[in-house]
Amino acid sequence: MCVTTRQLDFEACYRAVSARDPRFDGRFYTAVTTTGIYCRPICPARTPARSNVRFYRHAAAAEAAGFRPCRRCRPELSPGDPGWDVRADLVGRALRLIDDGVADESGVAGLARRLHVTERHLHRLFAAELGTGPLAVARTRRLLLAKQLLTETTLPITDVAFAAGFGSVRQFNAAMKESYGFAPGELRKTNGPVRRSPAALTTGLTLRLGHREPYDAQAVLRFLAARAIPSVEAVCWSGDEVAAYTRAVPGGSITLRPAAGHIRLTVQTTETHRLSRLVARCRRLLDLDADPGAVLEVLGSTSLAPLVAARPGLRVPGAYDGFELAVRAIVGQQISVAGARTLLGRIAARAGVPAVPATREDGDAAGSRNAAQPDGSPGVAACGAGVQVSVPDMAGCDAGVRVNVAGVVACDARAPVGVAGMAACDAGAAKAGRVPLLFPTADRLAAADLDGLGLTTRRIATIRALAEAVASGEIDLDGAGDPADTTARLLKIPGIGPWTAGYIALRALRDPDAWPEGDLVLRRTMERLGIAADEAERWRPWRAYAAFHLWHHASTT
């Protein structure tokens, strides 16, 4: 392997480039000195001569050395390097926060404070690991997102600048010319004429999210569908397959759809500066940066070999929001998935806020349209283009409702969707109230009255203690904290035991070696398969993937 240490192995990397080995996509980048361009290992262009090649671990390091991204293989579509999750060190956590937009909002100083280190120490670590500093990494991330927006969408250049995280159009133009040698408008000209669409961010824009093959999108989406929180998330089905997963985000909604070789992300939001964060969180939610080859290499030689061989593309579903996932884990203790889903919907209805706050002009109409029922769900859900139907029990396209939209469109959990363009599953339905609520933040939930929702007194106390710890900054569930340290802090909260802490680490902290200790389904499945309890030690550092293989096997047999 050419990236097992800090230093890249030139010969191994060159062999990977010559073979266009997809296993190394996103793990390093190839820069060609004669062209001034850097590429992905899978670039279809002719393999350059050895003497003309340089290898870099991160795109930012290649750009800092004066190389610009290839327009043919498009480095902005590379999956992330999963090695950072395995190591879970400070640089890996910093990269996750940069992807989440922390450096854009608070600068490198704010990033360092979040990680509890000095700027100088952070820069020293980045230089040693990546060959460039955190500021350059954040700048490259903005430029690559902007390049993708310019290539794949009709968004006006002004909107592209702010959506990518730049503070001004002038700053955006200067950065593009300095790093890439051309202005944003010139890239648009090479891609053909573009229809101007000033309202693109409110009517929906679509981006491609790449991943490594094989990728079992349906397994991840079905897992999320079974746990979708009423009024926060919605799922559309096409026969027995999930056609689309939608959830509320600040200013609107996001919709994820499986496609050939990638996931299609449709974004509807009035808060353009959050686009980079949305992309990063969707990638973590669907575990798009995982390396199935590395998982197979370890698990394929153990007692799990038959399960891994049968479903090599299984991923570990992550979390869009770490605190929300932690609350899910607490609420789900010792009750069914359906029961937990009902209680979480009530919590969202009690303490959540609208994704798109109503204006004075439409406030009355919106209030009547989304009037909550006694169980906390909206009174109206939208299941298609301009069509609304009454849904007394929950919102979303899995509500068991059938409507006619240019033929029969079904939003039932197992009914076919038969409308061109997936109108019934379009993110535009969120405007009409399909997924109207944001899950409550930690500070909001800490102050909320949760009595009368069906939660026990002890469960309420645990949720409140967690919310207070997260709101105060004592516990960070969105990437800044060391997984082992964060798990230890979670275990200090009354009501959070090894299973709950392990489940949070597995999904929210993205610890690939997390193991939900004491899980009854895992224990019974291992017994049924004749797997000894101490066999789990052989699954390191991929015990989280082993757990999901066992859970998936239990749910399908």
Task: Please outline what is shown here.
The chain has 557 residues and is an alpha+beta fold. The chain has 24 helices and 15 strands.
Distance between the termini: 37 Å
Low-pLDDT stretches are 193-199, 360-434
Which structural class fits the helix and strand makeup?
A: alpha+beta
Helicity, as a percent range: 40-55%
Number of helices: 24
**Biggest β-sheet strands, sense, barrel:** 5 strands, antiparallel
The overall pLDDT average reads 84
* Fraction in beta strands: 5-15%
Over all CA atoms, what is the radius of gyration?
23 Å
List keywords for this structure.
557 residues, alpha+beta, four-stranded mixed beta sheet, 24 helices, globular
Structure in words:
With 557 residues, the protein is of the alpha+beta class. The chain has 24 helices and 15 strands. The strands form five sheets. It has a five-stranded antiparallel β-sheet with strand order 5-9-8-7-6. Strands 3-1-2-4 form a four-stranded mixed β-sheet. It has a two-stranded antiparallel sheet with strand order 10-15. Helix 16 packs antiparallel against helix 22 and helix 23 crosses helix 24. The radius of gyration is 23 Å and the shape is globular. The two termini are 37 Å apart.
